[in-house]
Amino acid sequence: MSTNNNPNRLAKEKSPYLLQHAYNPVDWFPWSDEAFEKANRDHKPILLSIGYSTCHWCHVMERESFEDEEVASLLNNHYISIKVDREERPDIDHLYMSVCQSMTGHGGWPLTIFMTPDKKPFFAGTYFPKHNRFGRTGLVELLVKIRGIWEKEPEQIKEVSAQITEQVKAHETAHLHGEWDERVLHRAFEQFQAEFDVMFGGFGSAPKFPTPHNLSFLLAYGRTYDRKEAIAMAERTLEGMARGGIRDHVGHGFARYSTDERWLVPHFEKMLYDNALLAMAYLDAYQWTGNKRYADLAESIFAYVLRDMTSLEGAFYSAEDADSEGVEGKFYVWTPQQVKEALGAERGSRYCELYDITEEGNFEGNSIPNLLQRTVEQYARERGLDPETLEAEMEASRAALFEWRERRIHPHKDDKILTAWNGLTIAALAKGAKALQSSEYADAAARAVRFIETHLRRTEDGRLLARYRDGEAALLGYIDDYAFYIWGLTELYEASGDASYLHKALALLRQMIDLFWDGERGGFYFYGRDGERLLTRMKEIYDGALPSGNSVAAMLLSKYAAITQEAELSQLAEQQLKAFAGAAMRYPAGYSMLMQAMLGAFRGSREIVIAGAGDDSEVQRMLAAVRQTYLPNSILLFVPDGEEGERLRSLLPALQDKTAINGKPTAYVCENFACQQPVHDADELKRLLSRG
Fold first, then answer.
1. Domain locations along the chain
2. Which class does domain 606-690 fall in?
């Protein structure tokens, strides 16, 4: 193990992940011209290691190998070593992850790539132990072998790297264009149905990821086509996750994924994007079903985000680690003795019995709190207790355990601020403000917007930047940054009625088209025309743990084409959907966010316009009626009286005839380019909305 006290080049970086490796004995470079120039000059292969600061197996590989003098000696003498934070440079990560997946059939982090000085990969993998172990190749043995081939058979490496590079380029530029058929939506539902776990919820076997946009699609699909099975699958999954250990029952929020099929044992790291997307899915379920439990779960996520993941300036941090004190999950697990020490013997015993905290434990001798065996209501019935009284006691116990847990050593927090993930969180909070009529959530979303506008937009041209940390904004924003932030602005406009958010969203939408649009084949490239040119300019469309920027952009283009009635946006919206139809038709369940955009294309979007004085009580009732109703593929436009309304009409000519008739508050509901008879009170509007 290293006792190195001298920092390497990474000590000058801002990324928490790179800074974690700043005192490795490995002579790390950040991704830079300097690194590639040295590799060329010294004629050395490159080891590219990609990860992120809250990645458990990244920590393991660092402890085993990158802190080790033997490994460092091999790397420093025979390789140029480059570290990349995947969250700062998702363009590099996407490119070389596709290499790893094509070469090995799988991917993950840490991502380990060997490549030539001209950035062409010739070997890929993920985690490697220091030495050969249990059939897994060791890093030391791999470094020795590759060094030998590099020196003795350079033509073989040249041939392999050229072949892989061509394959990657061919894949990225493959003709994904196609024509859509409405049956693709039903096929997506059928694929989810075939993979659905009836017992525990979720899809497929372990590990299970939340992938909340899959659930939002099922809710929207079920509502659109009156398929109760789709709603039931989404609800069973949302309930399973809420009862399982993937949810932090003491401090709130959800972990990144479950290692088992029951949602019991999580990979304990918490990601901002998961929690934002889950809050949206629970809000969708609440609006559609009226089940208050879903609202409570969304609010518990917001409580976690606003308490633990929010900077003093109002922006949102990226993630919390799975490990504390070098042990995965140590911060989150309990023993009966600890619970009773915090709560007292009687209350502690009851809490342990309900939340499955036992002497034998359910995770490495300790216990992860969960409600998989029974709910609070079921437990109350079994014991002859009043459910409301027990619920209140359990909440008091939770709060006491949280205070007790706060004395523990906390996991590392990745405090960098990513525009894309902040955009998702703004969208979630704004949806919460609408569904729950909460000014607190609207205010929190607005603070984050102010931060981005102040710190993450370039002064000279308004160009979005991707990352802020420690006083520095850097890296040109990617398609995800634009699409997710525009989504957040759109939701916040609907939640607040403040047209400035709509103006910002439209301006950024046009900038996004200018920077990322492929004028030849359609669709958006991952990085802008002003970005660093990599081996190929990729397009990301698959909706994995995060929805793709292209899928969210498809939704936005359709929405803004409808409200602006601009022919260019309508044409781009159609091209955007056709650009990826060929890929999505092959496995539609993998493109659930794109399927949501397709729902709007096939079944029509809905524009709801409310005109009147902003301080009129009936106008406020109308706005609340729309905001609280489950209306996927819809947009709410508020046209106030006076100058502000006139400015909005000049921005959106389709609103010219949407006025307060005879000075009375007026609501217009338009669908498929036709508007229904205007109504003048909230109850009439609710009846109108319920018909769809």
1. 9-172, 332-407, 606-690
2. alpha beta
